[in-house]
Amino acid sequence: MEYATKPEVAYDFSPVIIMYKDGRVEKLQGSEIVPPSLDPKTNVESKDVLYSPENGLSVRLHIPKNTNRNQKLPLLVYFHGGGFYIRSPFTPQTHNLLNSLVAEANIIAVSVEYRKAPEHPVPCAFDDSWTALQWVKSHVNGAGPEDWLNDYADFQRVFFCGDSAGATIAHHMGIRHGQEKLEGVNVKGIALCHPYFWGKEPVGDESTDAEFRQRREKYWRVACPSSSGCDDRWINPAADPNLARLGCRRVLIFVAEKDFLRTRGWYYYEKLKESGWGGNAEITETEGEGHVFHVKNPTCKNAVAMLKRIACFFNQE
Predict the structure, then answer these.
(1) Is the dihedral of CA 27, 32, 33, 38 positive or negative?
(2) Which end of the chain is more exposed for a tag (fewer CB within 10 A), N or C?
(3) Catalytic one among 52, 88, 129, 164?
(4) Cβ contacts of residue 206 below 8 Å, gap of 6+?
(5) Is 46 part of the annotated catalytic residue set?
(6) pLDDT category, 3, cuts 50, 70, 90?
């Protein structure tokens, strides 16, 4: 009798992914999808639009149902989290979060799909996100391929936002905009929710446990094999000589007390202020909560308060 041999594990990053030595990748969460729809709870409508035919990538657009064509709305470009490995704009958590945010803030949102590691290593996610922004920019004069953006988006009130790895992407899109400028687009602010930043050496009260830090570094190197390590600018913005060129005037950072990335968020806040960047940075810490709690448990008191704070940021003049 023959027995099937169990494939050997190369990397076990549970509960996110497991990679096997034969090259197979098992994604343990974030693969479910929900179709675009009119959400009766929030009265927000959504649809999917292809922005990168060569890579088969789409954005999911979200808009309040009863929007007046004469009223231009602030435009949010949102980048989902998932450690660069999992999730999409079409997963229930991301879809529902955007519906709630759009309803609360009365904005139009573009939720970006990007290629994910390890099949498509970082910086693919950053490259795809910039391509999506170029697609968004094509609507500035009302002549782009998507009527919702032509008719309703106010390109003088544009915001970037993301959670976890998506916050990392939002930061880098701000840096790139600061250097290359999306013509006709005024990025007023960037909101970073529990950003996935790291570094080789511990900062503040960050864990000094060698095994823990080695696992974090391995997690990053598998996502970005070309990386020089955890002091690469892609993961450690404090090591980026262009930090002061962040292309917006306002940044709002959220950290959570029980998140191992908490101290790194505070470190980013301090380094941004010290960099010579001329904008205004704010940081908010939520007590008693863990990483991306607002995505996992969106109806809890702290998540509702966080949503209202983000919405206020988008509508602040």
Answers:
(1) negative
(2) N
(3) 164
(4) 260, 263, 264
(5) no
(6) low
